[in-house]
Amino acid sequence: MNPWAIRWVWLLSVTLVLAAGRSVFWDTNVEVIIYNDLEDKKDLTIHCKSKDDDLGVRVLSYKEYYDFQFKPHLFGRTLFFCRVTWNGKSHWFDVYRGDRDNGCYESDICVWNVRQNGPCTEILDVCYPWDT
């Protein structure tokens, strides 16, 4: 391969890595923190998973939190979702979606408050409806 082609391929590779928002050489973790913010102060049962990892079931009292960390996929394909249950009713939501959260607004910490009407982000105070 000629030297110009090698340089072009190298430059394109570096550009793609940087455009994805993360470099494979950076040791960046994302932390997800989920608070029980149910207005009726009930216990919240939470079960979070990804395609590859089952994080288990936890029970949170009012204002308690559960947190976990992970290394996101380079091209934004990371997905973690949680099923939450209280008063015998279950709901689920995507607690981290690479195409939506991208490192949680540059802080690498995603904070959620679980409320009756849906999960709310703490930084932007945006609430989402339950997926089901």
Automatic annotation (TrEMBL):
Belongs to the plant self-incompatibility (S1) protein family. Keywords: Secreted, Self-incompatibility, Signal. It is found in: Secreted. This is S-protein homolog. Residues 1-19 form the signal peptide. It comes from Hibiscus syriacus. InterPro entries: Self-incomp_S1 (IPR010264). Its main location: secreted. GO terms for biological process: rejection of self pollen. The keyword Signal applies. It holds the Pfam family Self-incomp_S1. The keyword Iron does not apply. One of its GO terms (cellular component) is extracellular region.
